Amino acid sequence: xAKQLDFTKPHVLRNKAEYQAAAAEIDQLLDEDPxxxxxxxxxxxxxxxxxxxxxxxxxxxxxxxxxxxIVDFILEQRGLSRADLAKWFGGKSHVxxxxxxxxxxxxxxxxxxxxxxxIPADLxxxxxxxxxxxxxx
Length: 137
What we know:
Antitox_HigA; Cro/C1-type_HTH; HTH cro/C1-type domain-containing protein; single chain; Lambda_DNA-bd_dom_sf; 7 helices
């Protein structure tokens, strides 16, 4: 069991060790499924706010993998190459444009990646939309 944080004087999470301890305690509290308004429930909410604040500060969105990085990783894990995607992407040029960042994934391509490679669609959709929105600004 992880060491419980002492918040007799509440403070933001200052380092990775405090972050990990808070995350471990959140997991433990979630397993206990505390009743709303109980002390454990209030602690769960408090720690969740602290963890979210730490993640917002130390884990910026642009540090998350791009759809291209996700697909490359899965291809490598399965012993496949980018050329293997052509049959699902509508041709080699579409694959090339996707990996060069020129063409975002279509819903049909996301569905094919989910079906054939097991990549969760929400992972690809979320990052595709985030990147499209950030390039619009």
